[in-house]
Structure formats: C-alpha cells, structure tokens
Amino acid sequence: MKTDELKLFATHDLYIDYPLEEVMYRWDPIKREAYVKFYGAQESVGPVVQSNRLYKDTILFGDLISAEEYHIGKLRT
C-alpha cells in the first residue's frame, strides 16, 4: 500500500490483496479487526492477530482492491 493510503484504516472498509502469498485481507474500521481470505478459500471465521507477520507484509506490499474483487475471491496458482 502507498503511504497516503494508510490513513484510510481509520474510516474505511479496506480490502488488500497480496498476490505473492496468495492472500487477501479485509479491514473493518468499526471493530478495528482484520479478516484473512486465502486464494481458493473462505474468509476466516475470527479476526487475525494484528501482530501477524503475513498481515503486516500485506499492508506494506499489498494492493488495495474492491469489495467485489475480495468477495469473488481468486484461485490459487
């Protein structure tokens, strides 16, 4: 993500894709929780621990995507 996009965490539902690891995350700003969805799988039932390394890498190196792209999902390669 770009530095100027980080401020969106305070006010927006965010959907982030990290193709290198075939994973996507959804951020809920009201609950202040993130949920993981691996390619070819359903979203996690519970929130991700925010100190999770893969989650942090996704924030640093991933790309914002639309809610539609997240909910449709992606296939594993």
How would you explain this protein's 3D organization?
This protein is an alpha+beta fold and 77 residues long. It has one domain (3-72). 19% of the residues lie in helices and 25% in strands. It has two helices and four strands, in the order βββαβα. It has a four-stranded antiparallel β-sheet, covered by helices on one side. The longest helix is centred in the last third of the chain and has 9 residues, at 53-61. The chain is globular and about 30 Å long. The two termini are 23 Å apart.
The total count of strands amounts to 4
Please give the alpha-carbon distance between the first and last residues: 23 Å
Roughly what fraction of the amino acids lie in strands?
A: 15-25%
- The multimeric state of the shown protein is single chain
Shape: globular
User: How many separate structural domains?
Assistant: 1
Rg value: 11 Å
Q: Number of helix segments?
A: 2
Main sheet attributes: strand count, strand direction, barrel closure: 4 strands, antiparallel
Order of helices and strands: EEEHEH
Can you give me a brief rundown of this structure?
By secondary structure, the chain is α+β, with helices and mostly antiparallel strands. Helices cover 19% and strands 25% of the residues.
